[in-house]
Amino acid sequence: MSLTDPRQWPEAYAAAVYAKDVEAFTALYAPDAHAFDTWGAAPLNGQAAFRDMAAEWFGSLGDERVVVTCRELHSAESGDLATLHAFIEFQAVNTDGQPLRAVQERVTWVLARLSGGWVVTHQHTSAPLGFGTAGETAD
Q1: Non-local CB neighbours of 31 within 8 Å, separated by 6+ positions
Q2: CA within 20 to 30 Å of 18's CA: 10, 54, 63, 82, which one?
Q3: Are 100 and 93 in contact (CB under 8 A)?
Q4: What are the pLDDT digits (tens) for 95-128?
Q5: Are 86 and 74 in contact (CB under 8 A)?
């Protein structure tokens, strides 16, 4: 799927994750994409790293699916570059669609418009520690 608008990216990401579609997930990233991931000790570098991570993640889910929801999505676009940032929730659901558990993160995506459409070139996720939920801040 070629994205014609960078704001389509979160929806395409959510669809690929829910479908556990490794190839659709991988296609959302540039060949030289780089990520600092909340859960990984080392950065992800290149599409092959994203493919391997997705295959491992999706394979670990068994019959479960993951519903991805973004809130407070903000975007900025200038020429062939765009940034998106949001709060993102990953909610595991069983085969009946019943919630099992969820985790929230903060995410920033940097996208570039390449010949195949908009893809992520850099991703950074983080999680607040000790301040309650993702939307809260310390006083």
Answers
A1: 46, 47
A2: 82
A3: yes
A4: 999 999 999 999 999 999 998 899 999 999 998 7
A5: yes
